[in-house]
Structures are given as structure tokens and as C-alpha cells.
């Protein structure tokens, strides 16, 4: 049996989609959560992590870095990456689109964690919401064309997890975040209702985001 260790911080952030893929697949994994102090004083100086950042996934001791690459690897391994070669490409394109969108919300998230010092309300109005509108319009187009209610094809993929997890994070701080986006709200509810996932969400450790 393959031994998986996911090494990250006690955050959902860039580690959560990988954890959710394990939950969806019902696959055991070691959920290693490094304290920030230990990361900076002990783990990072060792130089053992491929690009000196987390998350890192160990597969029988072999390391993989980059959160989207980890998610894609697990999704392909467990069957949540799209059913055909074409579907896989579309799923990957959604993940890339999410990566293009993410820098717009990153300062907000860094401020929440205390690693930056911006005014959250200003960021929400001037940066996050305009970027959200563009990204949600793109995702809504996919959902309106979908027969299943998932972004691509007929089953849940890691692209659905990326979108739903983003929505969860920002609903916490902006209760009306999806008010004007009914398809995104419906998609979020559909993804979160998947039994293995909703069990994980209920049982997982608490974290800021
Ligand atoms: N593009 C990378 C970014 C990795 C990254 O920036 N990780 C942050 C936490 S979310 C980190 O390890 N920060 C601590 C450091 O850089 O020392 C990914 O998606 O995995």
C-alpha cells in the first residue's frame, strides 16, 4: 500500500484540496501540520523541501511540490481529474485559471494570517470583489454549459474543489460573497454535500482559513 504524507501548515489554504482528494477517495494519509515557528527555524533551513515552500506531498518517501501539481497528481491517481484526455485538459485549464486569479486575493489572505498589513475592507472592495466578478463569470459560463452541475464532465474533479474551497474561505469574511452568483452558490452546495467530503469538513482540524 502506498504511504502518503502531506506536509503543510495548520491551514486549509494551499493544502486543503489535496486533503479533500484523500477524503473523497477514502485513502488514508498522514496530515502533517508544521508550526510556522518550526518551519522557519528548523524545517526550511534543512533544505529538504524541493522549492523551500509547502505544501509538499511524500509518496512512499518521494517528494512532490507545488499545490496544483499535488492536486493534479492525486486527482489522476484517484479518478478526480476528468474522464477523457480532453476533459483532463479542461479541468487543468480551470486550475490554471484559478492560479491566474489567486494573486488578486493573496494580499487579503496574507493579511488574515498576519504576514501582511493591509486594510481588509479596502482590499475586499478594490481588489477581491472585482477579480471575483471576472473569475465567477468565467466559472458560471462553464456551469451553465454543464449537464451535471460540476464544472467539467459528469463527476466531481479537483477543479470543483478549488472553486468550492475558495468560496468557503471568502464566505467566512464576506457573507454576501456569492449572493449575486446563484450558479456558484449552487455548485458550492453540491460539492460540499458529497458525503465523504462533508464528513471531512465536519471532522477536520480548525484553522484560520
Ligand atoms: N506556488 C506554490 C506556492 C507555495 C507557497 O508559497 N507556500 C507558502 C505557504 S502557502 C510557504 O511555504 N511559505 C513559507 C515560505 O515560503 O517560507 C504552491 O502553490 O504550492
From TrEMBL:
SUPFAM superfamilies: GST C-terminal domain-like, Thioredoxin-like. The keyword Transferase applies. Residues 2-82 form the GST N-terminal domain. GO terms for cellular component: cytoplasm. Pfam families: GST_C_3, GST_N. It catalyses: RX + glutathione = an S-substituted glutathione + a halide anion + H(+). Its EC number is 2.5.1.18. PROSITE patterns: GST_CTER (PS50405), GST_NTER (PS50404). The keyword Lipid biosynthesis does not apply. Gene3D superfamilies: 1.20.1050.10, Glutaredoxin. This is glutathione transferase.
